[in-house]
Task: inverse folding
């Protein structure tokens, strides 16, 4: 693919639960775990989405109903054409003995990462959580692939609690040499000091409001680093994050205003 | 070798980050300076924040970009904060780009920022999204442009230079530049985006940009930008920030030969990456060495001889 | 599948060779038709022959061409001879493109050629080289354009359709097209070249074109052309010959979706070779098959829905 | 090189005689015998010129003083920059046992052709002519390379007479299987029936007024064939020429008017 806009028909839709679905497109381009694409719903809007899986035939994108755009996506039908461009951004790097922590829709980029790590024969385990069972992406598939710990806020599946509830204990009891995380920013706020303290290297897959995806609008730039999340991210490591002062505190909306 | 003085500002290189490119936050602009850019221009802002148009609002095509961000910006208060931040972190040059939906608003925004001592106020009268009550950019009307120039210059006073940013359209850019000069402008920035243009997805059969149309920037517009700078140079004595389609050092040199004192760089940050400023600098230094030029001034405007 | 009727002319394909491209002689135009073009437009001519500008007058750059041929042409008498030649050798469609240095001259040239029964008279009011006494193309003035339209249409009568060729500049192409329609034009050709632009050789430090500036054509201008056609389609009911930057079948389809009845092809003859018409035809047929369109009409203007 | 304009310094100038000189440029591109380049003299004009020789280091162009442009070229100095673009057009094809006939400045493209034929080990001979001795290009070099017959109108070198004076006799007495010719159009008018009658295949390197060199202005198109000399020529063979009705009668000037 490329930065130029092109539309592709949705080949298949899988509904994971209410307001949570995967769209499948023909695999017309390569993508690395952590990279994202821009999805254009003609007449509505265009937004960035992580690729959640890539196979020989398919590109999969997993979307949670939230505001107007993602809700409109829930109305899409197979055969309907959406615009895709990308892939954009820097992907995850690959490490052995890793823990993959995913919260909510943040589980999406971990799925493609897990596939790659397992193809490479690396050891890893999943640690995933969501508000409730039907908001949890891919639990069964993950379990088949690697050790998988599950948390839900309401206890409807796995352990009751936040995905980070037992993190220190897990890190201290297992051979974990690298941590990947994707999910709501509060997760990173919790994880960062714990990982830094243990000098564990890590990569977080982050989100910011993105307008262009190609590094020129400035909308996704992180204070004080000047890092453009769409180009130098969305995956940032512990060194990148040293310069980021806005983690968990502010980000910018469509106008560029800081919001909390 | 590339050090350039522009009014009171000292630029390490003659390159200016064009307005609308990474110019939203202090952090972002400082990073661009660290990559070898000489001065940065903020995103154009007005009094009230604007969300701008829906996406796609920035669309690459084979020969550049179309954009219709709709002058989204966080508003003057937020930009004042970012500019102050910038000023507290560095004393490298910052140009503040302002616009208004009415002539008065240009004045209000100028008032907001004069106190911050930007190294230049750039007045965007040429964005296809800022239209007078007649439905055309202020920059298409010599009268409106003259009025805005006088108003902003009056507020900026003698110590802050004012550059009027013009487009290639309207009644002739030379004529417009002259109207600006005659009304107190200290510099001209030429040009804004061209067109606008439209691209249609042939499979869904709809214009791709949410706004349907958007201004054209990048390599496609280089010849129009060079010609505009050439024309402005013949029309006025004040310096020119030559902008539009500059992607390579050869493009930047063309701008300077046409008469530009500084060279604006926008879409090239996408085309070549943020490293583009180093490439441009290396190429120009090489050119200067070949021909024995010591400063940018040595070859500025030579295409007119 | 691609057969198209345009007024009384039957075109094998919806492609029209744009004016100024290989349109000087009968032999040349017939050859282009043999390569799958549907209709040819002659080079624009006026009463007296013109040598045009010195060379370089046609200059490729990365994203298209600059040209300032200066409306060189062999004059109406010679072109009458070539058009007669053409008519004696084939009955495929020929559009005669005319211009004048004064409003009256448009009429004189029209008089010269009505007898030859061209399938269309295209009136070039938008070339940056044909300027009214105010120094701007007639096509920038709705009044002049209206007067020229009335004059030529009067001479052409009801049996020869007249298309006014407009540029993207001036007071708005929709408005201009409306002025043409209101004054009797049967069609609009949009667009002429954009800019003009300039390129400077950085080693000899001079503008490369002998005329210094020249109009931009080719891929660089596609978005501006598509947008112009889209705007004209909303402004008028008469058919549009959509021209500007069409290089691939996808480009041509965009033009048709924007509202063009025929698609003008100029610079692509350079970019892709004279074989381009076959490529365009194959690409559009493929598209029509995919979506079940039987005629060009079936998808014309659909981007407006 | 390319179609885009670029200027290069003249590295060397060789004056062959009054109003006849070769310019040397650095060899920055490949060129085939018969192809031409456009030469831009900034501030003056741009015109097409055959490449007369290519070596490992140099591109050579040979120019005869004629009108304003070529006279201005006679004032050029080494080091001065001229614009070059091209190469344009279709080259000569290669044949054994060939006769290379050059008249006046038309000798230029035969020089590079002879170099190629001799590199390929083909047999060939030169037949060259000019008005007077000092308008003759490369006679010595040609003699060193192959059998060379020389004619001058005034008899100042070689035989007195037109280059085509003894052509029938030469063709009938020697093993000539292919004829190349370049020079004033009258030469082709004389040669064509002679060659056609003998069913000898041939290629002529022709000239027409050229504005663009890239096949779009239509200025160089030949009646009735529609052949664009800048793209399908400048080298035309006997089949191409069957459709050309204007040979030796008319051609078109800068305005496109037919002149005789
Ligand atoms: C790199 C990246 C990867 C993403 N991957 C996924 C994914 O795999 N699955 C998924 O469901 N969502 C993903 N998102 C979020 C997605 O882009 C949308 O933000 C989300 O669908 C909500 O949009 P909305 O219009 O429905 O809701 P809105 O109500 O418009 O927005 C809800 C919130 O989403 C954020 N948001 C809105 N628009 C954007 C935008 N253009 N760019 C970034 N954030 C925005 C804002 O914080 C906003 O407050 C990703 C975002 C980024 C930046
Ligand atoms: C393919 C080709 C190869 C050529 N190779 C050579 C060469 O190797 N050496 C050389 O000396 N000359 C060559 N010429 C001729 C050259 O291009 C000029 O025409 C010549 O130098 C005279 O130009 P002028 O301006 O000096 O004279 P002018 O007085 O302007 O022209 C003299 C005659 O030259 C012809 N002419 C003028 N301008 C052009 C033009 N733009 N294109 C074609 N013909 C033109 C016209 O028939 C004119 O009557 C070649 C021409 C062509 C088309
Ligand atoms: C995404 C984008 C946003 C822009 N926003 C503004 C703006 O806010 N104010 C302005 O004066 N120009 C704006 N421009 C125009 C640029 O400053 C510049 O004049 C134009 O893009 C031509 O330069 P370039 O070809 O180097 O990009 C914007 C351009 C782009 C591509
Ligand atoms: C070399 C050249 C000569 C042209 N001459 C004319 C002309 O005589 N009359 C005219 O109406 N348009 C002329 N044009 C404009 C074209 O007809 C066309 O409108 C324009 O080039 C845009 O189309 P394109 O991008 O397909 O070339 C000329 C264009 C070129 C490139
Ligand atoms: S989204 Fe525009 S710079 Fe990142
Ligand atoms: S010189 Fe223009 S078509 Fe040949």
Result:
């Amino acid at each position: 693919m490329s930065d130029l806009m092109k539309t592709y028909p949705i080949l298949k839709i899988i509904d994971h639960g209410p307001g949570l679905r995967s769209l499948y497109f023909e695999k017309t381009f390569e993508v690395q775990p952590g990279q994202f694409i821009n999805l254009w719903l003609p007449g509505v809007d265009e937004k960035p989405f992580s690729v959640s899986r890539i196979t020989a035939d398919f590109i999969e994108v997993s979307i949670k109903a939230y505001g107007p755009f993602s809700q409109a996506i829930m109305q899409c039908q197979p055969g309907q054409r959406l615009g895709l461009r990308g892939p954009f951004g820097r992907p995850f790097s690959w490490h052995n003995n890793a823990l993959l922590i995913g919260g909510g829709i943040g589980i999406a980029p971990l799925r493609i990462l897990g596939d790659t790590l397992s193809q490479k024969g690396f050891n890893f385990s999943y640690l995933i959580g969501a508000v409730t069972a039907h908001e949890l992406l891919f639990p069964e598939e993950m379990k088949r692939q690697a050790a998988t710990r599950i948390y839900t806020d309401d206890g409807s599946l796995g352990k009751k609690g936040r995905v980070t509830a037992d993190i220190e204990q897990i890190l201290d009891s297992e051979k974990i040499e690298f941590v990947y995380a994707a999910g709501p920013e509060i997760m990173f706020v919790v994880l960062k000091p714990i990982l830094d303290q243990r000098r564990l290297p890590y990569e977080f897959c982050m989100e910011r409001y993105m307008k262009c995806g190609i590094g020129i609008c400035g909308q996704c730039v992180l204070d004080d680093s000047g890092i453009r999340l769409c180009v130098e991210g969305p995956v940032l490591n512990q060194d990148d994050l040293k310069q980021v002062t806005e983690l968990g505190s502010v980000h910018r909306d469509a106008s560029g205003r800081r919001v909390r | 070798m590339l050090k350039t003085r522009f009014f009171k500002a000292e630029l390490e290189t003659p390159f200016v980050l064009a307005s609308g490119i990474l110019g939203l936050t202090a952090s972002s602009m400082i990073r661009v300076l660290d990559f070898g850019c000489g001065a940065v221009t903020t995103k154009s802002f007005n009094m009230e924040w604007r969300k701008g148009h829906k996406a796609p609002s920035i669309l690459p095509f084979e020969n550049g970009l179309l954009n219709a961000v709709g002058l989204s910006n966080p508003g003057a208060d937020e930009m004042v904060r970012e500019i102050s931040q910038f000023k507290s972190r560095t004393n490298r040059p910052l140009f503040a780009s302002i616009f208004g939906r009415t002539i008065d608003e240009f004045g209000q925004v100028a008032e907001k920022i004069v106190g911050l001592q930007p190294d230049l106020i750039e007045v965007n009268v040429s964005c296809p999204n800022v239209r007078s009550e007649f439905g055309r950019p202020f920059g298409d009307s010599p009268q409106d442009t003259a009025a805005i120039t006088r108003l902003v210059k009056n507020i900026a006073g003698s110590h802050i230079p004012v550059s009027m940013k013009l487009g290639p359209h309207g009644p002739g850019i030379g004529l417009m530049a002259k109207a600006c000069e005659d009304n107190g402008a200290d510099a001209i920035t030429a040009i804004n985006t061209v067109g606008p243009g439209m691209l249609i997805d042939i499979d869904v059969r709809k214009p791709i940009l949410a706004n349907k149309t958007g201004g054209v920037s990048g390599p496609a517009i280089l010849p129009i930008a060079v010609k505009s700078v050439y024309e402005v140079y013949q029309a006025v004595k004040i310096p020119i920030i030559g902008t539009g389609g500059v992607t390579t050092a050869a493009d930047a040199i063309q701008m300077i030969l046409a008469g530009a004192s500084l060279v604006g760089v926008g879409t090239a940050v996408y085309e070549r990456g943020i490293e583009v400023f180093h490439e441009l600098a290396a190429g120009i230094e090489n050119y200067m060495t070949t021909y024995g030029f010591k400063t940018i001034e040595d070859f500025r405007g030579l295409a007119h001889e």
Remarks:
- The pocket of flavin mononucleotide (ligand 4) is lined by residues C 18-20, 43-44, 58, 65, 67, 69, 71, 97, 124, 127, 165, 192-193, 217-218, 221, 243-246, 265-268; D 216-217 (CB under 6 Å).
- The longest strand of chain B covers residues 94-98.
- Residues 4-53+70-195+215-304 of chain B form a domain with the TIM Barrel fold (CATH 3.20.20.70).
- Chain B has one domain: 4-53+70-195+215-304.
